[in-house]
Amino acid sequence: MTPAETLTAAQRATAAKEWSQAASLxxxxxxxxxxxxxxxxxVNALVADExxxxxxxxxxxxxxxxxxxxxxxxxxxxxxxxxRQFIPARILVTARSAGxxxxxxxxxxxxxxxxxxxxxxxTLTTTMRQFYHLSDQxxxxxxxxxxxxxxxxxxxxxxxxxFLLVDPFLHQLSRVEVLYTLRAIGVAxxxxxxxxxxxxxxxxxxxxxxxxxxxxxxxxxxxxxxxVGQQDPTLYAGLEALLSLQLMYLYPQAERxxxxxxxxxxxxxxxxxxxxxxxDRRAASRIVAVQQKIQQMTLDLQK
Length: 303
Known about the structure:
Protein name: TPR repeat-containing protein
Distance between the termini: 48 Å
Radius of gyration: 23 Å
Strand content: under 5%
CATH class of the largest domain: Alpha Beta
Mean pLDDT: 95
Largest sheet: 2 strands, antiparallel
Structural class: mainly alpha
CATH topology of the largest domain: hypothetical protein mp506/mpn330, domain 2
CATH architecture of the largest domain: 2-Layer Sandwich
Order of helices and strands: HHHHHHHHHHHEEHHHHH
Organism: Lactiplantibacillus garii
Shape: globular
Strand order of the largest sheet: 1-2
Number of helices: 16
Number of strands: 2
């Protein structure tokens, strides 16, 4: 069939509620034209055909569009709850504006979680235990357990997360990822975090800034753009990604380590390009040590 014929067939199958056929046809349409509208139609058919995991996976490709209307958000929420993805479901609910929809959606999530606590008690306990002991795994294997934890209920995820945030053996990026998830699900109670420089601070996740959007991070990014971006765009592109990674290690309190963004970026560029003079290295020995520690921790990810 031509693309036009496939679209017509998909629309007819949808109208006839022949959901398995509709899902197959909409997938073909979507592969040809990956638009938000085709994405919605495919997700709708997959949900109706009870292919919930596939539906939620497809929806992530146009996630922001599912935040725009109650109907689209309901569809996405159904896919998440039916596939027992309770943490992403809470992220969706938290991301939408407060109001009647959010209250009703939160009740749906809580009811689904309560049902899971009864019907999937053993599975949830096992997943929580594995998440709780995340640092027992090599760094490269931690991602799988972090992903599995997306199926935990709010209470179990939060309990394990509180331990992980202060687990001295957990890789810093894993710790930051867990903290950022708590921010995304709107945790409004204080939690303790072991920071990059081995300090313990108390934070309220829901009040934390978007990663990279705090004053210190933005200042550092501006300095890099001004000092390198206008002279060497190719070098800037690579350094920008590395600087963002550095700041991720320092989230959510980069200002505790980056006392002067201009000096930090000057040392950063010098180290990355091999052009940091010995006098500058001695003068900024603390910054050099911190940046080299970050570099080593990043290398550890590749082992």
